[in-house]
Amino acid sequence: MTPKDLPLKAYEDIDFLNSSACRPVRLQLEWLYPETVMEEKKIDSTIVLFGSARTLPPDVAEKRLAAAREALASAADPAAAKAALKQAEQQVDHSHYYQLARDFAALVSSDCQKHCSGYRDFVVVTGGGGGIMEGGNRGAADVGAESIGLNISLPFEQHANPYISDGLCFQFHYFSIRKMHFLKRAKALVAFPGGFGTMDELFEALTLIQTHKIQAMPVILFGRDFWEQLINWDVFVEKGLICEDDLDLFRFCETPDEAWVYIKNFWSYNGDG
User: Going by DSSP bridges, is the β-strand pair 169-172/46-50 parallel, antiparallel, or unpaired?
Assistant: First the structure.
């Protein structure tokens, strides 16, 4: 008789690992792998940057605006071309947030990692994609510093930007585990204008701080005009849905220097690395 081929070991059987029965194992691995790598990389604390994946770098936004103007001049469908032009104008208007994210990340990373020996504090971590996330990782790369990207598999928008540090780019399937990694080492959360994803992360973090599930930390919203136009914060208080003191859980900032000074003062950080 011919000996039968030995079956795969359980951990070598990809179909089994991808099965419903192994979901708890996959959840555990999505926690364990990045945690192990960040320990090895000596990442002690982080600053989380959130914001729209659709925010363009200023130079790219300007090129798209110029192209939209040219397209309107010879458009067969003027209505559609005008709508495209309006969107391009909005992209130019919001592109300064990309630059703010880049400048903020460069400032923080330069201050914290230029003399770093041993464990690293205030390492920039983003969702790893484009837009504001790219700006954050790019700013750290500008000054030769480490930064982290926590990517997640999505049907659109999400791709790993090229500015994430080697070895610190992770890919997630489960939002829940990704959220845990965002806040595990966080000492500040900085939110730029964004969509549903940004709102999700922002309000979850505020809820966790409000309910003392995580330590208090600076929560900074860049662009007061945007946030106050989007959300009537006082209505929460007027309707008795939150306490007035809860509005102190976050603050508005307009410049990287203003935000970084606030974070340093909150933690009494002296910048020695």
Answer: unpaired
Residues 6+ apart with CB under 8 A from 161: 128, 129, 130, 133, 134, 137, 138, 149
Beta bridge partners of 222: 253
pTM: 0.91
Residue 216 has φ and ψ, to the nearest 5°, of -65, 145
- Give the Cα separation of 157 and 175 in Å (integer): 15
Q: How far apart are the C-alpha atoms of 111 and 219, rounded to whole Å?
A: 20
| pLDDT level of residue 131 (50, 70, 90 thresholds) | very high
Pairwise CA distance, residues 147 & 168, whole Å:
7
Pairwise CA distance, residues 118 & 273, whole Å: 9
Helix, coil or strand: residue 24: helix
Report DSSP state, residue 43: B
- Residue 221 β-bridge partners: 191, 252
- Is the pLDDT at 143 greater than 60? The verdict is yes
DSSP 209-238: HHTTSS----EEEE-HHHHHHH--HHHHHH
